[in-house]
Amino acid sequence: CEDCGKSLIGECKLHGPLIRAKDRVIPSRARLTLPHYLTLRVLELRAGNQQILGVFAKKVIQKRTQFGPYVGQLSTKLTRYDESRLVLQVLKDGGKYFLDTPNEDCGNWMMFVRLARNQEEQTLVAYQHCGEVYFTTVKPIEPHTELKVWYAADYAKFMEASAVFIKEESDVCPLPPVAKEPIEPWICSSCRSSFATFALLESHQCIHKDRV
């Protein structure tokens, strides 16, 4: 205590405790990379004050808008697994590696994007290009809409996943229940063939373009 001139264990009984000044909280790297027209929302608080976050649009985002690349650490195994997020892998130097994000300082904002439970929710496709993973919008995204992603057709094969993911219920976000009616398929305007996802339709349309 500088007032008593004594070395004490704990608080000074005469002059009381010190006034503690806290450091300013600095946002993580991932949060600082969030584009200005996107925002993070807390969807749920779990035990230990763990936040379940979602990425939402603040203004209209046009179709065919590309985000990325996804930032993560190359790893042969995942140190952090979240069932509400996509597992991502890339080919590097002939090897297949996970894009691992053990904490928010090891990735960018794309680590917060949750996976789509069905075709109606899907607003983004994930795909690999030149050893990096990008997300691209498959339709215009309206303000206050959550960005949700699933694999593009070719990337789904690479990840050994289905071309479309359907889950009727979610324990993460209290969203309205998904209607159990058949989902409208994507129709090719050239030959009227139907496809389960926009990505499959896009791959099919490339065949028509090549023939032309």
Name given to the CATH architecture of the domain at 29-159:
Beta Complex
Task: Give a count of the beta strands, DSSP E runs of length 2 or more.
Answer: 12
How many angstroms does the end-to-end distance come to?
85 Å
Question: Which stretches of 5+ consecutive residues score pLDDT under 50?
Answer: 166-183
Kindly provide the radius of gyration, computed on alpha-carbon positions and rounded to a whole number of angstroms.
23 Å
- Major sheet: order of its strands? 3-9-8-10-7
CATH topology of the domain at 29-159: Beta-clip-like
Domain SET: 38-152
Keywords: Metal-binding, Transcription, Transcription regulation, Zinc, Zinc-finger
Pfam family, one: PRDM2_PR
Domain C2H2-type: 186-212
Descriptive notes:
Residues 38-152 form the SET domain. One of its GO terms (biological process) is regulation of gene expression. This protein is of the alpha+beta class and 212 residues long. It has a domain at 29-159: Beta-clip-like (Beta Complex). Helix content is 11%, strand content 25%. It contains three helices and twelve strands; from the N terminus they run H-E-E-E-E-E-E-E-E-E-E-H-E-E-H. It has a five-stranded mixed sheet with strand order 3-9-8-10-7. A hairpin with a 6-residue loop joins strand 11 and strand 12. Residues 166-183 have low confidence and may be disordered.
